[in-house]
């Protein structure tokens, strides 16, 4: 491996938008680490993407398990000595409840993956990212995390947001986390952005989405490979900035 060879870690990359982000980065010649909590599913995804001739490897990673997160960081350190790209993609959504009927335990469960999982992985990987000459962090957010959208009671997002308090607010928190990391890391040249993939047909929404997972991955791939003049602290979709 040459020192110019880039390595990317994508959490929750065994299926859906994470796997397509992995495919897109691997097609650019980047060594891609498929983070997945299930070994069979992770290995299967890596094997599928290797069939295209790419360097794609499975790394066991449950973002809610600190031991697993630490082991993944140690493995990457021992194997590559640094990390160039981190895509915090893993997320869950629970069933639908109106806000007043949503128990705290349900919100806590979603935040464990969508919020605390992102912080745990980013915290563990930052020492490795700091060794990269041009590190990039991409957080897979959602337009359902936009406070501007949530604050519009007649807008098109209300049908979803009115029954998804845990998921929507987890993405609002993720957006805030993105901005704070971006502010701290700007002077080090580490670019940190939140992206929305759009409404894609995946297991997360029982394939009701209207875009493909591959289409949804495109903005994440662009930001993961952005030049030094790329944005940071932004919330973007393929058509441009999303209102916070
Ligand atoms: N689909 C959409 O329309 C849409 C819209 C906006 C934003 N997004 C965001 O896009 C991202 C990908 O979603 P998707 O639609 O591709 O969903 P998906 O097909 O359900 O994929 C989610 C991935 O996250 C993994 N995951 C869940 N909990 C994990 C944990 N604790 N540790 C490690 N991995 C874990 C899942 O692994 P398992 O297979 O083991 O469950 C799976 O690989 C998410 O951040 C989602 O919020 C999606």
UniProtKB/TrEMBL annotation:
InterPro entries: CBR1-like, NAD(P)-bd_dom_sf, SDR_fam. This is 3-oxoacyl-[acyl-carrier-protein] reductase FabG. It is an enzyme of class 1 (oxidoreductase). The keyword NADP applies. It holds the Pfam family adh_short. PANTHER family: (+)-NEOMENTHOL DEHYDROGENASE, SHORT-CHAIN DEHYDROGENASE_REDUCTASE. Keywords: NADP, Oxidoreductase. It comes from Streptomyces smaragdinus.
């Amino acid at each position: 491996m040459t020192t110019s060879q880039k390595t990317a870690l994508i959490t929750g990359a065994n299926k859906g938008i994470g796997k397509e982000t992995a495919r897109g980065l691997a097609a650019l010649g980047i060594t891609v680490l498929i983070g997945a909590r299930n070994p069979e599913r992770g290995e299967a995804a890596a094997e599928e993407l290797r069939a295209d001739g790419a360097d794609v490897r499975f790394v066991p990673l449950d973002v809610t398990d600190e031991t697993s997160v630490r082991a993944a960081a140690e493995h990457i350190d021992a194997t590559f000595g640094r990390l160039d790209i981190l895509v915090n993609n893993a997320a869950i959504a629970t069933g639908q409840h109106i806000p007043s009927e949503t128990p705290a335990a349900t919100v806590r469960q979603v935040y464990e993956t969508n919020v605390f999982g992102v912080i745990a992985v980013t915290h563990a990987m930052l020492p490795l990212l700091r060794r990269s000459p041009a590190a990039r962090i991409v957080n897979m957010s959602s337009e359902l995390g936009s406070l501007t959208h949530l604050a519009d009671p007649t807008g098109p997002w209300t049908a979803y947001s009115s029954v998804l308090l845990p998921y929507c607010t987890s993405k609002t928190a993720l957006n805030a986390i993105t901005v704070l990391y971006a502010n701290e890391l700007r002077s080090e040249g580490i670019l940190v952005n939140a992206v929305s993939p759009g409404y894609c047909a995946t297991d997360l929404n029982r394939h009701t989405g209207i875009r493909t997972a591959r289409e949804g991955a495109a903005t994440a791939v662009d930001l993961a490979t952005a030049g030094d003049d790329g944005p940071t602290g932004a919330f973007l979709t393929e058509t441009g900035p999303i209102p916070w």
